[in-house]
Amino acid sequence: MRTTGSDTTTGGPLSRSYLQVTLAVLALVTIVAFESMAVSTAMPDVARELNAVRSYGFAFSVMLTAQLLGIVLAGVWTDRSGPLPGTFVGQVLLAVGAATCGCATRLDVFLVGRALTGLGGGLLVVMLYVIAGRVYPEAVRPRLFTYISAAWVVPSLAGPPLSAWLTENLSWRWVFWIVVLPVIVTGIALWRAQRRVDVSRLQEAASSRDHSTHVRTAWAGLSVALAAGALQVGTHELVFTWSWKTVVALLGLVGVVVVAPRLLPAGTFVLRRGVPSVVLARALLCAAFYGGITYVPLFLAGQRGASLQVAGLALAVGAVGWALGALYQGHDALHLPRHRLIEVGGLVLAVGLGWLSLVAWVNLPAWLSVFALLLAGFAMGTGVTTTTILALELSPVEAHGETSSSIQLSDVLGSVLGIAGATAAFAAAHDPGQDNALFGAIFLGLALVAAVVVPTGQRIRT
Asked: Which of 1, 242, 307, 308 is most buried, by the most CB atoms less than 10 A from its CB?
């Protein structure tokens, strides 16, 4: 017997009516979060074994570019067919991508696996939130999103240490293979859970956009993904001389600048007041944070000789900082205006990355990096969480879907550009064992990006 959101108003997300769907959703969120954090810890070993240290950041940016495409396509697909088909396809791509990475013996095969993983993850992130909005009544959703937040935080804490243990005691390949079986089991569980919900609710159109709008959005998403891909190919193993790769990188950068505004609120890149500045602030925060944190394990393990366990614990401390920042911004006694919290986030992130730069440049003890990551995580928990709240507050209700999509796109696009910039700098100047100054320069450059968030916050207030 099927249950609709309208005839069940008292049960929570774990009640009999929703239990199977809730467990499947939480499992998928946990898997995606674990995969993201665990891979960051294992990547120094992956890069060494595949002889791809100079291409270290490429594995992250390729995945994020594919995720960007998945997010755009998910919005179009959901509007036309509901979230279930895209959810199952996303699970298949995630499992195949993880298995491909685990079996890879060459960098190009590994990158194909990362691209498949990113595409599947992009589909899942959007589809799962749509399922949450259509299956659960409004009174139940706050508790559901509390569980979803926990499903993100727990893997962020446990994923890096577990990944380090698997890598050091078995092989880095197990970090990818361990994802495959849970994805398959979760897919079967979600398929069976269809019998307990009203499928017609999942097939309702969430948007009034017509076919031509869908087509334009899909082509814009494909174009910006290709442009971002060209930027990454051009900066891959970059050297400071003119070559075909330099031209490809510049064309990719131009493509991102030309196409991205079609997917983001008008005026985003000129700091228009309100939502456009919120979206830009979020992109800058993600560019600085993910560009920096991607290279922390390589810095600690490759330059300072730290074990992967130590590098993993450092990333886990960053996750703790993120949780503390999110709690701080939501505290009832907080009296700062919301736009000020974004300024605080940008300033604290700049300080954290600047501290990390000092640790690298002056050759300070590696354990001091932990405090930098705690600050950086706190900044993201404060700033990023606030951008979500402000974006919805400053948008009319009927535009919440479009605004949410813009926020997700700014996350990925900012991360891609931040990691691509760091990768280009590292590839161009990498000198094995002598990279203290290089890491210091990379972290300092990203600190300056974070500092731009402060004036951007001034433009958010309407």
From this structure: 308
d(CA 215, CA 343): 37
CATH code of the domain containing 185: 1.20.1250.20
pLDDT at 369: 87
Q: Are 398 and 452 within one domain?
A: yes
Same domain, 257 and 311: no
- Crossing angle of helices 275-293/400-429, nearest 10°? 30
* Nearest residue to 294 via CA among 426, 389, 178: 426
| HEC profile of 270-314 | HCCCCHHHHHHHHHHHHHHHHHHHCCHHHHHHHHCCCCHHHHHHH
Same domain, 74 and 142: yes
pTM summary value:
0.73
Of 263, 297, 329, the residue that ends a domain is 263
Q: How many CB atoms lie within 10 A of CB 343?
A: 21
CA dihedral 154→157→158→160, nearest 10 degrees, is 140
Contact 381, 323 (CB under 8 A): yes
Q: What is the 3-state composition of the chain as percent helix, strand, coil, each rounded to the nearest 5?
A: 80, 0, 20
The C-alpha angle with vertex 282 and arms to 279 and 283, in degrees rounded to 5, equals 90
pLDDT score, position 6: 40
Same domain, 72 and 197: yes
Residue 452's CB: how many other CB atoms inside 10 A? 17
Calculate the CA 390 to chain-centre distance: 19
Radius of gyration for the alpha carbons in the chain, expressed in angstroms and rounded: 21
Cα distance between residue 18 and residue 309, in whole Å: 38
For the stretch 24-78, pLDDT in tens is 788 888 888 887 777 888 888 888 888 877 777 777 778 877 887 887 777 677 7
